[in-house]
Amino acid sequence: MRNLLIFAVAIVGLPRVLGAQGVLVAPHAIYIDHRVRSEAIQLYNPGDEPVEISVSTTFGYPVTDTTGRPTLRMIDSPDSTYPSASEWIQAFPRRVTLPPRRRQTIRLLARPPADLPDGEYWTRIIVAAKGGRVPVSGVAANDRIQVGLTLEVRTVIALSYRKGNVTTGLSVSDLHAQVLDDSLEIGMNLERQGEGAFIGTLKWRLQDAEGQTRAESDMPLAVYYTLEPRLRWPIDRLPAGRYQLVTELVSERDDLSSDVLLPIDPVRTSIDLVVP
Amino acid sequence: MKTLAIVAAIALSLLPLIPLGAQGRGPPLRVRGRQSLAFNTLLPGLPELVPRTDVARSGQLEIRGRKNTQVMLQFLLPTEMTGPGGAILPLAFGSDDAGFASSRQRGSQVGFDPHAPFTAGLPQNGRGFVFIGGTAQPLPNQRAGSYSATVTLIVADPGT
Amino acid sequence: MRTISQTAIALALIAGFTTATAHAQNSDFITAQATVLTPLAVVGDADLDFGNVFPGVPATVAVGDPTAGHFTVTGADNAGVDITFALPTDLVFLANLLPIASWTGVHNTTNAAAGGTAFTPSAAIEVSRLSTGATPGELYVFVGATVSPAATQPAGVYTAPVTMTVVYNGT
């Protein structure tokens, strides 16, 4: 009985809707070692209709937009200065029709050039899903106009290919922050060191003059080249006074195994803040 | 669960101290784990069944004893696997998830309920194989990472 | 309590099995193993549906309407995502076109258009984060638009695809 209940809860928890068109992709980041040269992604169709799926690659890496929010810069044709793996990562199969509530494994095979230097190479995997049915409501009649738009989805995830001993690191500069009415805005400049992208977490805490933590939070972050995030968190209204903001960048992620993260020594920075 | 495993381990470690008065001639009764029960990659919210007949993924143990004798089999089954930060992943075993065979041929298995003792006969060569399948039931918000649990098989010679 | 009862059962089981069969016995174990992956699910779960429209009469589906387009994104707690759209300018029935424009969008970490963040789907990129807290890793996107059938618009079933792309930007 308990098993039945668990199963029922599990099914209810999935994004399954009649006529839904989409796909579940896992994992959400892929790491391939040069010695292995292959990896797999799992696809699942949570809907009640077959879904046509295609898998392709493009090049891109996270940057910050003009407001300081992390976003992805996509480059269709990266030149040779970029460590792109898009040309030599291949998916098998590239196209598949996935029946309702079925899983499919997609193999990703790397065929890098023979003289590939040691380092980390990047691409983005695009999984496009579309349904084969166009449901339109309204009264069907020869003199009626019926209008409906079908929804298609594309999911883009990261792939990193590592050859040799790949390291990463971070330098932090220009940490600045301000407490607004009900939020804290933190900005900093981050520059990656080493050969591989930094994938980790930014943690921060706000301490009062007695050293007590008054607010804290964290956020997953990826630095491929440089990043100038300006991030805002809601916080409770703080009494006027002096505070210290302590930030820490660590190679930890809740959503990724530590096996795939390039380790760094935690990078700690702090500044004083005055709340008027 | 951890306590269960520890107690089971202590109890099992005492088993060799029990007098083996009824042992007859021939090799001693032995069981050895041959293959893990491998659910491989799971997606949150999607139960995954490994049949006992799945050659690549079912758990497998080998028994060696006296030829043409009966052995009693009893599993100690976990109800969950443990993962990162102590996260648990429910595990279930159905009434036909265990199998016994006198060879590793999956077609020759006789199914039995892994929750109850089962008596099997060792053939002429004194070898038998036990297979175990099961269902992993990751929750919709199951934390990512590696999970594992211990499945123990106790094999006894009833002395018949 | 559960652990205690499990322990008791295990002890009783081993003791009982041992007593009943105080003969040759042996035990060994295998492990049950699994690796849970973090998924990213993007599902278009309600089409943008105008139903019947009339020649010469523009029709609008607002983001809060039951017939608005609806996408669900589920993934890792607090994960950063970019959302972009590929939008049609016309719906098609045979060789006939029906213009569609004035796209509107809202994304929210709870499944309601009200209280969400408004954005323009036809703009370049909308940056958001999946939810964190009690129900982590969720984002809902609502899409509306206006169709403008001509006075001489031929009858028929007009359709076109709306494609939403979700990019994980935290890895």
Mind explaining what this structure looks like?
The complex is a heterotrimer of chains A (about 280), B (about 160) and C (about 170). Chain A has about 280 residues and is mainly beta. Chain A contains one helix and 18 strands. Chain A has one helix spanning about 1-15, and strands at about 20-25, 30-35, 40-45, 50-65, 70-75, 90, 95-100, 105-110, 120-130, 145-165, 170-180, 185-195, 200-210, 215-225, 225, 230-235, 240-250, 265-275. In chain A, strands 2, 4, 5, 7, 9 and 10 form a six-stranded mixed sheet that branches. The N and C termini of chain A lie far apart (about 60 Å). Residues about 1-20 of chain A have low confidence and may be disordered. Chain B has about 160 residues and is mainly β. Chain B has one domain: Immunoglobulin-like, CATH 2.60.40. Chain B has one helix and 13 strands; from the N terminus they run αβββββββββββββ. Chain C starts with a helix and ends with a strand. Chain C is elongated, with a radius of gyration of 27 Å. Chain C has about 170 residues and is mostly beta strands. In chain C, strands 2, 4, 5, 7, 8, 9 and 11 form a seven-stranded antiparallel sheet that branches. In chain C, strands 10-6-12 form a three-stranded antiparallel sheet, with no helix packed on it. Chain C has a single domain, classed as Immunoglobulin-like. Chain C is built from one helix and twelve strands; from the N terminus they run αββββββββββββ. The chains are: A mainly beta (about 280), B mainly beta (about 160), C mainly beta (about 170). β1 of chain A pairs antiparallel with β2 of chain C, so a sheet runs across the interface.
Any chance you could write out the topology, listing elements then pairs?
The complex is a heterotrimer of chains A (276), B (160) and C (171).
Chain A: H1 2-13, E1 21-26, E2 29-33, E3 38-44, E4 51-64, E5 70-75, E6 89-92, E7 95-98, E8 103-110, E9 119-131, E10 145-163, E11 168-179, E12 183-194, E13 198-208, E14 213-223, E15 226-227, E16 230-234, E17 241-250, E18 267-275
Parallel strand pairs in A: 2-10
Antiparallel strand pairs in A: 1-3, 3-8, 4-5, 4-7, 4-9, 6-8, 9-10, 11-12, 12-15, 12-16, 13-14, 13-17, 17-18
Chain B: H1 2-14, E1 30-35, E2 37-42, E3 48-50, E4 59-64, E5 70-76, E6 80-82, E7 88-92, E8 98-101, E9 110-112, E10 118-121, E11 127-132, E12 134-136, E13 145-156
Antiparallel strand pairs in B: 1-4, 3-12, 4-11, 5-10, 5-13, 6-7, 7-12, 8-9, 8-11
Chain C: H1 2-20, E1 25-36, E2 40-46, E3 48-53, E4 59-61, E5 69-74, E6 80-86, E7 90-93, E8 96-108, E9 117-119, E10 126-129, E11 138-147, E12 156-168
Antiparallel strand pairs in C: 2-5, 4-11, 5-11, 6-10, 6-12, 7-8, 8-9, 8-11
